Amino acid sequence: MEIGGSQLNAVQLAGAVRDMGHEVIVLSEQGPMVELVRKLGLEHIEIPFIRGFPSAYVCGKLTSLVRERNIDVVHGYEWSTVIEGFFGPALRHRTPLVGTVMSMSVVWFFPRTVPLIVGTEEIREDAIAAGHRRVTLLEPPVDTDYDDPALVDGRSFRNQHGIADDEVLVVVVSRLASVLKLEGLLLACDAVGGLVQAGHRVRLVIVGGGPERDRVAAQAAKANSAAGRDVVSLAGEMADPRPAYAGADVVIGMGGSALRGLAFAKPLVVIGEDGFSELLTPETLPTFLKQGWYGRGPGSRGVGAQALQLALERLIQSPGLRRELSESARQLVLDRFSLRRAAQLQEREYFSAIEEPSPPFVRFKDTVCTAGGLSARLLRRKYLSLIGETRPSFSGQ
């Protein structure tokens, strides 16, 4: 339960569903996000942090818990926990199971009979084409009551990091991890360094922790050395990053972090992989509503640090554009991405899973296919480890 957008969404949705009158139990490893679970008054049951995926222990734990507590629905977040629910209570007791995948793809062996919730329309269409029985779009929700710029003072964050009033503060809130995140973080360091070299008064503060901190710090040091002063800072992990969002003039991000920036009424540059970056404007909004708050390859300004620098430069040079984009940002989140709306949709999926079970033969076929696919994946990983290759993947390939 490390700090991250998917984990935050899962916990906040659990609290919102509980507030709708349901009993909710959170089963997870220990970690920083467990503090939020407890703060919301949710029951938490711990499972081991170091375990195989899927874990026979967790399958058994889930099965026992369902029997002892008369649980109506099991909801797994990301493919590994869905598989544990599938081979645990869903197989043993035919307990309705729902799965959420907020990664940028769905593993090919994901059970087709499990109602699937995904974060982008593009992934929803791909999953339907792959044969999934029921696929629902639930864009990453934002608790707009909690992420409210009227309730948070960003001045203290700016003062803490020595940001002058005439400096444009660019903020990234992200895990410092290799998968999905690292490339964009390094490009942000280079882009802001380039802006400073071009004479702009701009600073970048990166909020977050993770295994790639040293690489990000090295890139920041490179930008600072070229500028002759600190222009890129690493703030470390913040359990509550709202002051960072509130203090920013511009937010760079993807996924839930991008949406939280919008909730704080900030202009947004979306980043991704393969050099992608794109400024959110009324013209680019339809693209993000379809593909999610992420991209690959060239944006409208090309790829790499130069493209990101151009997007940021447009904002830095035009306070009027920043003000215009800020005014529409929070309203977009209020209209489309509210936590309350997402909780209602999730509740609907629970009732659907209970009321529309798959026929026994279809479930049996799905069990055989999923078991075969999972076995093939495990054998492939074992082979790669034997020959000394590793391939980290957010999609579980």
Attribute tags:
about 400 residues; alpha/beta; Rossmann fold; 2 domains; six-stranded mixed beta sheet; four-stranded parallel beta sheet; 15 helices; 12 strands
Structure description:
It is a single chain. With 397 residues, this protein is α/β, with parallel strands linked by helices. The protein has two domains: 5-141 and 340-386, 3-Layer(aba) Sandwich (Rossmann fold), CATH 3.40.50; 149-336, Glycogen Phosphorylase B (Rossmann fold, 3-Layer(aba) Sandwich). 49% of the residues lie in helices and 13% in strands. It is built from 15 helices and twelve strands. The strands form three sheets. The protein has a six-stranded mixed sheet, with helices on both faces. Strands 3-4-5-6 form a four-stranded parallel sheet, sandwiched between helices. Strand 1 (25-28), helix 2 and strand 2 form a beta-alpha-beta unit. Helix 1 (5-19) packs across helix 14 and helix 7 packs parallel to helix 8 (213-227). It is globular and about 65 Å long. The two termini are 22 Å apart.
